Automatic annotation (TrEMBL):
CBS domain span: 10-66, 92-152
UniProt-listed SUPFAM superfamilies: CBS-domain pair (SSF54631)
UniProt keyword Thylakoid present: no
Keywords attached to this entry: CBS domain
Pfam families reported in the protein's UniProt record: BON (PF04972), CBS (PF00571)
Residue ranges of domain BON in the record: 145-214
Name by which UniProt lists this protein: CBS domain-containing protein
Gene3D superfamilies xrefs: 3.30.1340.30, CBS-domain
InterPro entries documented for this protein: BON_dom, CBS_dom, CBS_dom_sf, Diverse_CBS-Domain, UCP036990_CBS_BON
Length: 225
């Protein structure tokens, strides 16, 4: 039993830009392919950076309006002695937070949340771009059928991993919500069962009413059942 990996859910055919790709062509790529960002790669597909809609807007936000007024207090690039951002190399954000194909979806979601990003370019061990994974990709496991979730819990978790006898634990799944009932020997077993079943991809929530014959956690800080 294991979580799905980034490789299984990522987009494999990624729209990219070269460092010399001009501003207008990048805007066209975003519009034509209905994406909000494009990775920038060298001729060997090594990732150099990412240009997003936010980067394009940031570049145009410094331009004056029709009456020549600047937005806020920021100076124009020319007034700072800097050239206008015309190419992907000048527009891109770098370095970039990336993911690896073998990462599981939990690890990837935590990275996205921690870094505050909506997508992660996926690179191999050499730094070459092999895909891109987005927030919507991470939600795909929740489209799994209740039958698939129940089968994985019954076979992969309860039978193969925990070696429980058939019908020790009864499993029902309704819209991703798992309910476990049954009886085990030790109270500690309940913790293990719940933890492993909860980690199955596609499980939205889990409720258990599992009885036990022996309370081997009697000295634990948890309140009694």
């Amino acid at each position: 039993m294991q979580h799905r990996t980034v490789f299984e859910v990522m987009t494999h055919k990624v729209i990219t830009a070269a460092p010399q790709t001009p501003f207008k062509q990048i805007a066209r790529l975003l519009a034509e392919h209905d994406v909000s960002a494009v990775p920038v790669v060298d001729p060997d597909r090594r990732l150099l950076g990412v240009v997003s809609e936010a980067d394009l807007l940031r570049a145009t936000a410094e331009l004056p309006d029709l009456e020549g007024r600047l937005a806020g207090v920021r100076l124009l690039s020319q007034e700072r002695g800097l050239p206008d951002a015309e190419t992907a190399a000048e527009l891109m954000t770098s370095p970039v937070v990336t993911a690896q194909p073998r990462w599981n979806l939990v690890e990837t979601a935590r990275t996205m949340q921690r870094k505050g990003v909506k997508r992660l370019p996926v690179v191999d061990e050499t730094g070459r771009l092999v895909g891109i994974v987005s927030r919507s990709d991470l939600l795909r496991p929740f489209l799994r059928s209740d039958t698939a979730i129940r089968d994985e819990i019954e076979h992969d978790v309860l039978a193969d991993t925990l070696r429980l006898a058939p019908d020790t634990i009864r499993v029902t799944v309704d819209d991703g919500v798992v309910r476990l009932t049954g009886r085990v020997d030790e109270r500690a077993d309940v913790r293990v069962i719940v933890r492993l079943c909860r980690s199955v991809d596609g499980v939205v929530a889990l409720h258990e009413s599992i009885e036990y014959a022996y309370d081997n956690l009697a000295l634990d800080v948890e309140p009694p059942r």
